[in-house]
Amino acid sequence: MKYGLYPGCSLNGTGIEYGLSTKAVAQKLGIDFVEIPDWNCCGASSAHNRDHLLSVALPARNLALAEQHGLDQIAVPCAACYQRMKAAEVALRDEPTRREVGEVIEMKVEGKSRTRALVEVFTNDLDAEFLSSVVVRPLSGLKVASYYGCLLVKPAQVAIDSPENPMIMDKLMAALGATPVEWSYKTECCGGSLAITRPEASLGMTANVLKYAKLAGADCIVTPCPLCTSNLDMRQKAAEGLLGMELGLPIYYFTELMGVALGLEMSQLGLTKHFVEATSLLKNTPAAQ
Amino acid sequence: MKRIGVFVCHCGSNIANTVHCEKVAQVAKDFPGVVLSTDYKYMCSEPGQVMIQEAIREHNLDGYVVAACSPRMHEPTFRKCAARAGMNPYMVEQVNIREQCSWVHANKEKGTEKSIDLLRMGVAKVVKNEPLYSTTIPVTKRSLVIGGGIAGIQAALDIANAGYPVTLLDREHTIGGRMAQVDKTFPTLDCSACILTPKMVEAAQHPNIELMTYAEVEAVDGFVGNFDVTIRKKARYVDFDQCTGCGACTEKCPKKVPSEFEMELGMRKAIYTPFPQAVPNKPIIDAKHCRYLLDGKCGICKKVCPTGAVDYEQKDELIVERFGAIVVATGFEQFDISAYEEYGAGKIPDVITGLHLERLMNASGPTAGKIKRPSDGKVPEKIVFVKCVGSRDEAKGRPYCSKACCMYVAKHATLLKEKMPNSKSYIFYMDVRTPGKNYEEFYARTQNEYDAQYIRGRVSKIFQVGDKLIVRGEDSLLGRPVEIEADLVVLAAGMDPRGDAKDLARTLGISYDQHGWFTEAHPKLQPVETHTAGIYLAGACQGPKDIPDSVAQASAAAVKAAGLLSKPELTSEAMTALCDEAICSGCGLCQSICPYKSIEIKSINERYHGQMRQRRVSNVNQGLCQGCGACTVACPSGAMNLKGFTNDQILAEVDALCQR
User: Fold this and answer.
1) Chain B hits for A212, Cβ within 8 Å
2) What is the pLDDT, as a whole number, of residue A289?
């Protein structure tokens, strides 16, 4: 299977573990990811607040590049990138918009390439039987809270699953042998976009996500979003202070847990780069012992 | 050329203020065919009508045009006037120079001009009018009531008491419907079963009522006065003639199934009666769950039955019966709350609906009337109600108000406080709507005497932490978010049309709105009639309703049905569609567009170039046709004509308009 890959800025920076684990897992599964040459910023978090045309044109250029290189499907790991790219894809279905954007980016764009969230590619495109056959270290006994955040499930035109109770990552976790917990904060906002401007408001929201995962009995949280991850991971100590309770919840990218289940080395997956210590929980799973 | 008379009415000053009536009459004298033209202050008055009748005789008129008010107002008057003078009533045309001219215009010159134009058109049309005759059809003096809830029962009783035989049909194997599931009724708090079951028994024992339960309507043919209804009597696997209703089979049946009547809060057997007061009070076998019918093992009920009534070989039976009138009373379904994922609906066991709470409150319900929450049987103390779930919510495709929820929530809050004085009810609402006799007073009591706390705002999220349900919402009067830790959440689920309401509507040939509620013929003036003559609506199948409204509408529908049955014979519509077989190509477009299913394609034999050949053409059933004219518009070859509004007549009007 061949896909275009749009890594975005975080996969080499704040979300380096996401980048490392994505590549390692893809290689292990025999999925061919071709990085879109000369890609640019998707515009997330700022462009659509400034200018609508800019917010479509930025990702549209990446879509145009993908088209030029014959990449019909683009896998996008970052949830924010996915949402901007998919929103552009939807906007480009309108012929006048397509023409206008084409003039702005000075490229021909037909809107042929399909934007896919990485979590979709790793679940819907993989045969369930195949996936269970390659799991060598099932995550038995690991209680996981799947946290989707807001960007993959809203608004309806770009959503990959139900906005209230998505299940796609829960099913993936179950396929890896882990136990997904029932909880109610799957798609609540983590406060990511207020993290810089109003940190006290943001922290309250982050803390609630962590609290309810803990109350649901989870050992850890799994996410498909670098922004959520950095909030939940980096600010967990501050959240503990705010809540007055101990959390100790490692925050994993779903690709990291896939990698572990597939038998890859933890350091190769970036698991040593977390704020909340992330390796011992996995070493302690019954399967590892 | 026909001899035509013209009569221009002043309508006091209603028309005369804006139209020179004398001038109009004067000009009309020169229209082709006009032998007499005159004006008068009130044409509809007795002297006016006498004047017309004298003119008909004196001038030997073939037809006449009256320029006056709307035909909706006085067409019957002027048609009868013609008939009294020996003229065919369909040789009259009425031109509207009041509602569509004098009342809406101010300029007298222009009003006069317009009146002349309209009159010219009327005269051009009446010249082409042909005498039309209505025929009479016999009436089958029996009525069918579809649906045995409170509306159907009431309608059946009223028709039966008027002296006509009624067949009361229900798809379930007992009558009683939704009301049987309800514990108490607002605003009087009398026990629902106590007022319903006497009616059920009365219906079952009434000499004019035939109960036909566990049966469904398969097809409807025929027309007003003579509907031929195909009914499927579903196999019960119990011979009701032999069954005594002793209940031994139910007691011994080993198979337990969640009870639909108890909203799956309790269990029933595979051979069962849904509730103790069921009518008829004899069990049936649920074929989907019966061990014997599924895999041939068991057979206990047959062994224990003292009268040998159990019959595993029974099959569905199709019967065709003829009815003069049909009352549709198929009711509603409770909205499926699982669409509200944000409320954990369908996932969290302690997030329940109003009907669930009815069963939990009911003394003969699964908890014997003790309020125990479904998850762990704990008695709840804090109860949160959320109103408008599946009502007034565009996002869920339900923009309409379900009408009964505000009151049933108030009732629930009152009863919970009575049963459990230490409990507290919180009610999230958008508006509180209590337009009904003694409703507002009841609502006020709920707040003032029963301590219910009403919170204005929507709930955004309900989730479970430990054994508590966290309800998050907004208090929009305080402008603040609120959070309540509840033990039980009741969603005031709204009303949905029956899932198969649209199928039934198509079978009956009646119309329905975008949601599936059956449509009345006129929202104000014909609230129980449908567009199909002889079919009437009762209860919530026409739109959300509470019990008093359903009963009132049922009695109204019964009066309409009995009125129809009381006629010795029916006069059919004279202005019906007619197919010109010489032009008809048999394409069938008219057949598919006809809302009354009155058009069929038939084969005719004709001579063509000296040889006989067969050809398909449309045929309009004159008894069914209501004269709507849809087929005449659809017909590509112009073969379909509406008598009284033929293509020829309408073109003549257009020609006349262009002649000015």
Assistant:
1) 463, 465
2) 47
- The nearest alpha carbon in chain B to A185 belongs to B463
Label the pairing between strands B92-96 and B63-68.
parallel
Please, are residues B587 and B636 in contact by the beta-carbon 8 Å criterion?
Answer: yes
Q: Is some CB atom of chain A closer than 8 A to the CB atom of B466?
A: yes
Cα torsion B622, B624, B630, B631 to 10°: value is -50
What DSSP letter does each residue of B234-298 carry, written as one string? ---SB-TTT-----HHHHH---EEE-TTTTTSSEEESEE-SSTT-SS---EE-TTT-HHHHHS--
On whether any CB of chain A is under 8 Å from the CB of B467, the answer is no
The neighbour count for residue B310, using CB atoms within 10 Å, is 24
Same domain, A181 and A224: yes
The 10 Å Cβ neighbour count of residue B31 is: 20
Q: Is A215 on the interface with B (CB under 8 A)?
A: yes
pLDDT at A284 over 80: no
Q: Got the DSSP string for B97-130?
A: -IIIIITT---HHHHHHHHHHHHHHHHHHHHT--
Instruction: Average the pLDDT over A127-156 and give the result.
Output: 92
pLDDT(B138) > 80: yes
Q: Examine the domain organization and report whether A76 and A161 are in the same domain.
A: no
Alpha-carbon distance A74 to B370, whole Å?
58
- CA angle, residues B74, B80, B82, in degrees to nearest 5: 105
Residue A36 is given by DSSP the state P
CB-CB contact of A92 with A55 (8 Å): no
Instruction: Check CB contact under 8 Å for B465 and A215.
Output: yes
Are the beta carbons of B465 and A162 separated by less than 8 Å? no
Q: Is A164 on the interface with B (CB under 8 A)?
A: yes
pLDDT in tens, B301-314: 999 999 999 999 99
> Which of A65, A97, A119 is the C-terminal boundary of a domain?
A119
Q: Is the CB of residue B247 less than 8 Å from the CB of residue B279?
A: no
Using a CB-CB cut-off of 8 Å, the residues of chain A touching B375 are none
DSSP string for residues in A109-126:
----SEEEEHHHHHHHSS
Distance, CA of B159 to CA of B565 (rounded, Å): 9
Q: What is the CATH number of the domain that holds A30?
A: 1.20.1050.140
What 3-state class would DSSP assign to B163?
Answer: coil
Owning domain of residue A210: 130-283
pLDDT surpassing 90 at residue A193: no
DSSP state of B380: P
Mutate to test the interface with B, among A150, A153, A164 (most CBs of B within 10 A): A164
The CA distance from A162 to the nearest CA of chain B, in Å, is 9
Domains identified in chain B and CATH numbers? 4-127 (3.40.50), 143-331+497-565 (3.50.50.60), 334-496 (3.50.50.60), 577-643 (3.30.70.3270)
Question: A154 touching B, CB under 8 A?
Answer: no
A-B C-beta contacts closer than 8 Å: 19
Tokens of B407: 């009151």
Give yes or no: residues A191 and A259 share one domain: yes
Residue A289: inside a domain: no
Q: Is the ipTM of this complex over 0.85?
A: no
**How far is the C-alpha of A160 from the C-alpha of A171, rounded, in Å?**
14
Which residue does chain B place closest to A166, by CA atoms?
B341
Q: Verify whether the Cβ–Cβ distance B463 to A184 is below 8 Å.
A: yes
A146 and A276 in a single domain? The answer is yes
Q: How many CA atoms lie within 13 A of B400 on its CB side?
A: 17
CA distance B468 to chain A (A): 12
- Of A284-288, B94-98, B556-560, B562-566, give the lowest mean pLDDT range: A284-288
C-alpha span between A12 and A10 (Å, rounded): 5
Single out the residue in A119, A143, A165 at which a domain terminates.
A119
Residues 6+ apart with CB under 8 A from A198: none
